Amino acid sequence: MNAPEQAPIAPPVASVASAIDLGAEFRDAGIGEVLDALERDLVGLAPVKRRVREIAALLLVDRVRQRLGLATEHPSLHMSFTGNPGTGKTTVAMRMAEILHRLGYCRRGHVVAVTRDDLVGQYIGHTAPKTKEVLKRAMGGVLFIDEAYYLYRPENEKDYGQEAIEILMQVMENQRDDLVVILAGYADRMERFFESNPGMKSRIAHHVDFPDYGDAELAEIAQRMLAGWNYRFDDAARAAFDEYIVLRRAQPHFANARSIRNALDRMRLRQALRLFEAGGLVDAEALTILTAADVRASRHFQADTASSTDNDKP
Hints:
By secondary structure, this protein is α/β, with parallel strands linked by helices.
């Protein structure tokens, strides 16, 4: 008797890749370029840069998990950036938007930076359309709200900030796949803001603290700024500026890199006036050099700095 025919063996079904090269994914997405740019843009801030790298790694791995068919929940991406003025929060927000866009978590990858005045109206019925218009512009990217705690003013019963907060929280929850909100400001004030608005805090997944710069870091920031403007200190001016940093940090309203930039602008003004009053011919060297006199003309070098008008408020 003939043996029964066997059913033909079906060809193997093509399956989803069992392994993906994370290094290749990282390179193809161009994330390294963004992280390198962040390194170039900002001096120091090692903890911040590490946190940005961690978030980028999380999103990259999440994308790979989806491709391998692993069940995953879309990661929450709303963030809080806390720290003093001039510590690079806006710059990091811009780089974060690039990372989100390159990994497919933002359609457009742009940043809309606003403050309370852009969101809160001055009369009944004014706040909702203002807030919704800002949200419309930010969709597909990042909404960066600086000094976000000013949205909440419980001491004023007629304040409309709470209305803006409620609209924001609703959008942050319901449209979190199409908008990332970054709240920024001083750490202590942000903490009080979150305590007063627990619904907002529960929507924030990543809290990033931006430390103040040290003296050496501020000096390096100054050197980078001057180089970008085709200026430089001579040796005496560089030593004088190191002294200036110590004096300036001891004064009110110090705003890290922002204060350094303002100080350099004033020193360039002094150099220009010095050259103008001297008259005669000038060459490229003279137009490039900032001297100790340009630095030490700051009122911070005077004995009485209490009434100094050379302060630059944030």
